[in-house]
Structures are given as structure tokens and as C-alpha cells.
Amino acid sequence: MRAEYAAGERGARAAARAGATVVVVDAFRASTTIAVLVRKGTKVVPVASIEEATLYPGADYRIGERGSARVRGFDFGNSPSEIEAAGLAPGSVVVLSTTNGTRVLEAAHGAPAILAGAFVNARAVADELATGVLGDRVAVIGCGWKGRRASEDESAAGAILQRLRESGAFLNERAERVVDLYLSRPDNTLRNNSAARRLTSLGYENDVDFCLAENTVPVVSRLCDGAFTDRM
């Protein structure tokens, strides 16, 4: 298996065109929120725009943020800790729209398989990929923030890529660098980066701890027929 790292919408499009399985990593917070929702047994429909989310037919819940703040009129913000405590019924249809994550997911359209990965499900995602059932080429995509690098996405991608390397995957040079950053970056750095400070300023400090905890939500969030579910 060959695994690589790329970033943003451009990286997602290129990986999809190349026929790679795409893992979209938005650690703060879309990929983490998706994992929580999938564990609750909901069907998570990612859409790029607020308008699409508002008009989506048959939605039981609408979840979204812009600039990390909850979209007015939506049921929840993009807060995994808030959603973890909420009583969402299994089988509910949840429409999700976020600043970065859902846009990158849309850019990956056409890939043979699309997964959402984060710290909370890094091991589960990597182990599923290592089986080879999703193909022998994987691209792990760090979403970033408004076109800029995001250290939390790089580190969460590194957690997935390290596990793949341990399973025998060949990593390209950029993926190796991301793994090295993951292994050497102090945890306190992520807790105090610009994204964490932004979340804390908006009252989402619980999300920072939730999103940085590794392997606490062991699901494989896979996009099938337009919705994320556990694996298939």
C-alpha cells in the first residue's frame, strides 16, 4: 500500500482524480463531529453551503458553523462535545455544513472511497485502510483553515499515517514529514494554537480536549450514497 499526504481542496481533487481512497482530516472539528454522529447511528449528509443545508429535504437535524460559531437557526453548532451529550435518535438524518471540512469533502467527490479521519478515530480508520479492501493507494488530506495550514490537522493525519506505516504501508516524503511532526509536536502546542484559542474564545473549550483525545471514538466514518455511516 502507498499512502501520501496532501492539503486542502486542491489536494483532495488531485487525489480523487488519481483514484486514491481519500481520508479527509478536519480535527477541529468536522471529522470529529462526524465520528460522534456515526457512533450515535445517524446518517450524516455533508454539504458545502448553508443554503444547501437549510433546503435539504428530510433532515431531522441541521448542524453547522461559520468561523467556528454556530449557524443561526441550526439545531447544533459543529461541537462534538455538545453532540455527544445530545439525545439524537439512531437513524436520524443529520445535515452538516462547516467552514472547511465539508468543502474539502465535496472536493474529493469521485474518489473510490471517502473517509473522515481525526484523532478520535485514527487507529480505526488506519486499520480499516490497512486491510486493503479500499484499495492500495491512500491520500490523507489535511483540511487546514481558509486555505492555510492547520497544525491540528497535520498531527491527526500523522497519527493515521504512522499507524499505516506500522502496518507496512509505504509513505511518500511529505507523509513521512507529517508523521515526524506528529511524533515531535508537543501536545500543549495544539492546545494553544490559533484554532484552539478561537474555539476557547467562543466557549468551546471542551471541544479542544475532546478533539485531541486519541482513539476515543473507534468508528470508520465512510461516505456512501451521500451520507456518512459506520464503514458501509
Give an overview in words.
- This protein is α/β, with parallel strands linked by helices and 232 residues long.
- The protein has one domain: Alpha-Beta Complex (putative 2-phosphosulfolactate phosphatase), CATH 3.90.1560.10.
- The protein has 11 helices and 11 strands.
- It has helices at 8-17, 30-39, 50-55, 80-84, 101-107, 122-130, 151-166, 173-184, 187-191, 194-201, 205-212, and strands spanning 2-7, 21-25, 43-46, 61-66, 69-70, 93-97, 114-117, 137-142, 170-171, 221-224, 227-230.
- It has a 7-stranded mixed β-sheet, with helices on both faces. Strands 3-6-4-5 form a 4-stranded mixed β-sheet.
- Strand 10 (221-224) and strand 11 (227-230) form a beta hairpin.
- Helix 1 packs parallel to helix 5 (101-107), helix 6 crosses helix 7 and helix 7 (151-166) crosses helix 8 (173-184).
- The radius of gyration is 16 Å and the shape is globular.
- The mean pLDDT is 95.
Task: Describe the structure in brief.
It catalyses: (2R)-O-phospho-3-sulfolactate + H2O = (2R)-3-sulfolactate + phosphate. The protein has eleven helices and eleven strands. By secondary structure, the chain is an alpha/beta fold.
